[in-house]
Amino acid sequence: MTALHHEARPAGRCPVAHGFDAMGDDYYRDPARHLSEVRDATPVFWYPYLNAWIVTKREDCLTVLSDWQTYSSASNSAADVPEEYQETYPPELVAKMIVGQDPPGHTEARSVAQLGFVKERMDRLQPEIEARAHRIIDRFENRGTANLLEEYSLELTTQTIMALLGLGYEHEAMLRQLRDDLFSVLSSAHEPLLEPKRSEVWKRFVEANLVLRGIIDSRRGSDADDIISVMASARKEDGSWVLPTPQIALHVSEFAAAGTDTTAQAMTNAVIFLSENPGALQDAIDEPELWPRVFEETVRRRPSSTFTSRRAMHDVELSGVQISAGDMIWVGLASANTDPDHVERPFEFNIHRPDPTDHLAFTAGRHTCLGNPLARVQGATGLRVLFERLPSLRPDNTEDLDFLRMALLPVRRSLNVHWDVTDVERSRERAVRTLNLQVLERKDASDGVVTLTLGHPDGGQLPQWKAGAHIDVHVPNGELEPFVRQYSLSSDPQERSTYRIGVLKEVSGRGGSAAVHDALLSGSSVTVSWPRNNFRLAPARNYLFIAGGIGITPILAMIREAQRTGADWELIYGGRTRSSMAFLDELAVYGDRITVVPQDELGHIDLPGLLAEPRQDTLVYACGPEPLLRAAEEHAAHWPKDSLRLERFAPKAIERTLPDTPFEVEFANSGTVVTVGAEESILEAAQEAGLPVISSCKTGTCGTCETPILAGNADHRDSILTTSEQEANGTMMICVSRAAAGCPRLVLGR
Questions:
Q1: 404 DSSP β-pair partners
Q2: What is the distance between the alpha carbons of residues 481 and 214, in angstroms, rounded to a whole number?
Q3: Which end of the chain is more exposed for a tag (fewer CB within 10 A), N or C?
Q4: What separation in angstroms does the CA of 112 have from each of 98, 666, 703?
Q5: Distance of alpha carbon 747 from alpha carbon 668, whole angstroms
Q6: End-to-end CA distance of the chain
Q7: C-alpha–C-alpha distance, residues 632 and 625, integer Å
């Protein structure tokens, strides 16, 4: 098969983007920005170097990616096989690469390979990924410097793919080289691969594939769980093997490349972005649940594969440009992800975007990256462990452009980093997911309220947090399983050695708060989670805080933060009686910024008057009993959307006018479909089906079970997401929320 760059092409195609250079420093420094410089004037342009059209607008990119009959993937494996290897490695075999097939061949190969990347398998692998990450860091942490890409990112991804493939360390060097050689073979369909490199690459590539073929044959019929065995043992209805040995070896070659380098590139790019955005880094360190968002925002901003390619099967038009049948089209994934018509502030690195997975980094449609569940688990885990262990890690020079220069896959070869070696000792205090703490102090804060100050007995530092965060507290419950209850942190986030919570004894509650009062005494040991934050204090010029009773606890930390930033703020604090209102002495230092409203003296807080007129540049934060929060929602309904932020102790009451009905949920990563009955939750249906879902409160108030929505509309019944977040329909709490009326099936990203 002849590579397309050797084909004769008509000269003088237009339009041409004269400022675009896929081999220049500006492109390798930031592909998305370089593409943005030509996107407005020439959204589709001819690039002579590649003999291909480049498509930059998201809408056009989706058009190309979603129509395989018009835009074929077959050209992606149009590599020019040297004659001496064509008997062993015929061109038609190269054409069977998963990334280079159209249906039905693509469907068959992908369905078999997909068995090795189901979500359950990735979830089972996550603890091992974490353990491997720790062991890799053990090797170099005391040096204070490293080539992060080679010594950590690629080391972690290579070890992981080897574990998935069931390959021993004797094959590690071969697998690493196979990764690079596969990229060269793929790129040769579009960019020249000159001698002597061409012969060297193909010799190694074929030899490695012959080794893999022997391994595959030895695993035919195996019931082992590794990917090679799974693919080798898949049979058709007539009992024959689904895929021939040479084709499986080819797919393993693809996994060796896509399963290692692309994720390693993303992790390394994340370190660069975080060094340039220290606020995002600190947020993720403070709240580890944000690491998946760091990974998603990284691949949105700089996908490891800048482009994917297709061939036009007949004459088409994109953005007014005529493209002829047979023309190659390069789909600009990096450009689509930063298209300002779709993404607000596209070049801002924002890990708090409402829909973090709304990007094309893993492409779209039938060719969505097969290994994206692995990449997402591995990328987020690898970054979390890295910065748990070495939080001061920073790049030496982000302007270094040490790349393997291929336009399709700009492969970074190194990123030198440094850190303060004192991190090594500190990280040992923060590397656990739960904390075994001691009640250092217990106080009666008011009638019915106790405060517990928690910390390590030796005074070691605790994981950082931000105003609005809470922790799960495991409360002894006799011989039964402990109660797990969420309590807001009311101390100062800058005080790193202790957490403080306030607990109201609910006489008619479910038993958790009573157990806290009875069992957690000074000196008691208690297990708590790392802090989690569903009530984040967003930046604003002005704040109006409204607290009712024990709802004052998260507001205390918010007041401190507002005070530090110089924002204007006031607090209206209500309670049954003055003696029942905790922390009044602590609040007295703020003077007339505080308005105390004991109900037996002054009645209820005057919410109608307080919220009558919307205030400019003001956010309202309210926490307290449900009647207070419902009244706040009612009287702030005319304020700008999302001005009011609430945190509920109990789930928000949902008024139903129609009975619930059954619906289906597809968990996309595993392909499992469950039917959710009218009287059960998605979480319960998933657990009954044996799916690995996690939860804590099961009332829509803690955020543990938040799950991405890939398709369908949700009936949101949680007490966490803002109105805008619910309208965006990007995630849902599967413990309480359901499919919206008229939506027979939801597709969720688990």
A1: 411
A2: 51
A3: N
A4: 11, 19, 35
A5: 6
A6: 40
A7: 11
